[in-house]
Amino acid sequence: MNRNEPRHLISLRDLSNADIDWIVRRGTEFAAATDRPDTLLAGKVLGVYFSKTSTRTRTAFTVGALRLGAEVIAYGPGDLQLNTGETVEDTARVLAGMLDGMVIRIAGDPREIRAFAAPGMPVVNAMSADEHPTQALADLTTLAALFGGIKGLRVLYVGEGNNTAAALALGLARFADTTLELRTPPGYGVPDETLAQAKHLARRSGSTVVERHDMADLPRNADVVYTTRWQTTGTSKPDPDWRRVFAPFQVNEEVMERCSGARFLHDLPAHRGEEVTAGVLDGPASIAFEQARNKLHSAMAVLEWCMVR
Ligand code: CP
């Protein structure tokens, strides 16, 4: 990469193993830090544009930027002239002349986020339809902090093969000797091309990514059970009967008993009684809310990686 070019975080596919390792390690340092490194982004202005709802990601990047000394301009879904027909390219060209970086959630076509990145302003994908890269980085930060590293971890993912699952697969596969077993409802798996890419990355790390479409013979040695909401932000399912297909893929006490000793992760927001029971989400194995807090620490690491290094 030409070091005069800004670093974008559009997809984990674009990052090297060393990049991902650096962001995760830095995230754990921010999580453990007692001091406030409030000058790293001093003098910089970050644009935060969310055209879809968000509780965690938007707050994490806003607070993270403020803690690092930046100023923040927030754009909601109705604020930019994109709504009146200005192109993404023209919008980005103008904003790049004023902002030092942008964090964007569109929950739609990832090519739109790539178009924002064109003029030379660091751009972070805060979730597109195909991938949720900053979620995976926060998840990996949580795992690294909890287990003292990621090498060798065995993760069981249960639920839709959505943008969170895709990013988790593309991220975990970079670490040595890991296993990701995806149990996704039939017809709702990780897209073929993403799964193939994750398997390719995993082979290079001596790791494994497998997907099945049933809940039989769950691995008993999982370190982590992970699920996400069944209705991903910004999406809907054409099949009116989709809940029937998803019902067997609930993470409940029985699943956790079969994976005895595993910790439970959820990217949130959760729908208790759908993808997870209240007993599991609020139970002793759950670290879902610690995971949510780590979105802040990981966002700080991502901003430093994009805007300082
Ligand atoms: N997990 C996640 O992305 O949460 P938000 O949609 O609230 O940002």
Secondary structure layout:
Layout: H1 17-32, E1 45-50, H2 56-67, E2 71-75, H3 88-96, E3 101-105, H4 110-117, E4 123-125, H5 133-147, E5 154-158, H6 163-172, E6 179-183, H7 192-205, E7 208-212, E8 224-227, H8 242-246, H9 253-258, E9 263-266, H10 278-281, H11 288-307
Parallel strand pairs: 1-2, 1-3, 3-4, 5-6, 5-8, 6-7, 8-9
Helix pairs in contact: 1-5, 1-11, 2-11, 3-4, 5-6, 5-11, 6-7
Provide structural commentary.
This protein is an alpha/beta fold and 309 residues long. The chain contains 11 helices and 9 strands. The protein has 2 domains: 12-131 and 296-307, Aspartate/ornithine carbamoyltransferase (Rossmann fold, 3-Layer(aba) Sandwich); 133-292, Aspartate/ornithine carbamoyltransferase (Rossmann fold). The strands form 2 sheets. The protein has a 5-stranded parallel β-sheet. The structure holds phosphoric acid mono(formamide)ester. Phosphoric acid mono(formamide)ester (CP) binds at residues 54-57, 127, 135, 233, 267-269.
Distance between the termini: 13 Å
For the sheet with most strands, the description reads: 5 strands, parallel
**Mean pLDDT across all amino acids:** 95
Count up the helices: 11
Q: How many structurally independent domains?
A: 2
**Spatial strand sequence of the major β-sheet:** 7-6-5-8-9
Instruction: Tell me the CATH architecture of the largest domain.
Output: 3-Layer(aba) Sandwich
Described by the principal axes of the CA atoms, the overall outline is: globular
The structure class reads alpha/beta
Instruction: Please report which band the strand proportion falls in: under 5%, 5-15%, 15-25%, 25-35%, 35-45% or over 45%.
Output: 5-15%
Poorly predicted regions: none
One letter per element, helices H and strands E, the order comes to: HEHEHEHEHEHEHEEHHEHH
Indicate the radius of gyration in whole angstroms: 19 Å
